[in-house]
Amino acid sequence: MRPRTVAASALTIASLIAGLLTTAGPAQARPLDLTCTPPSSDVITYDPPLTRDPKPTRVSARTEYGPCVSLSHPRVTSGTRTDRVSGSLSCLELLLPTSTTFRITWNTGQTSTVEASVQSSLEGATLTVVMTGTVTNGLFAGGTFLQTNVGAATDILQCELGEGTVRDIYSTVTLEIT
């Protein structure tokens, strides 16, 4: 598996911010259909922990969405995303832009498949991961997806300097689908 794909899955540390879509004629904001706010969270675990040097790594990610509110599907109140991937990865690759495809299982048993671009950034000791894309299949199909994950970056910064490892990353998540 390509390191960028592993990094994308690994950075499924995942919250969404409202997006705007334009239609023919004047620009109009589409209504917010679903929002999930903290304590929504994402935990990614690396086994063995990441270092500056790429090595075979197992990545496990779990995103818990909730509480969630949806106008079109009021029974949707929470969701889960679980990923497990393996590949060669280092902490230096965690901030590379990439893309990913994943599935969310909602508390109703319905699913949504999402294709998203992933942009990560560090500001001070804070890691922000923004995933933007489209719900391509299932519940909310055709909707615009925006997730923002915010977490501590101390381990990543130390690892990039060669002074530590990244065992796991915890972040709060905000998700919006319009």
State mean pLDDT (0 to 100 scale).
Answer: 87
Oligomeric grouping of the chains: single chain
SS field, number of helical segments: 2
Percent helix: under 10%
Count of folded domains: 1
Present the secondary structure layout.
Elements (H helix, E strand, L loop, with lengths): L2 H8 L23 E3 L4 E10 L4 E11 L2 E3 L8 E11 L8 E9 L4 E13 L2 E13 L5 E9 L1 H7 L5 E12 L1
Antiparallel strand pairs: 1-4, 1-10, 2-3, 2-10, 3-5, 5-6, 6-7, 7-8, 8-9, 9-10
Tell me what the structure shows:
The chain has 178 residues and is mainly β. The protein has one domain (3-21, 29-177). The protein is built from 2 helices and 10 strands, in the order H-E-E-E-E-E-E-E-E-E-H-E. It has helices spanning 3-10, 154-160; strands at 34-36, 41-50, 55-65, 68-70, 79-89, 98-106, 111-123, 126-138, 144-152, 166-177. The protein has an 8-stranded antiparallel beta barrel. The radius of gyration is 16 Å and the shape is elongated.
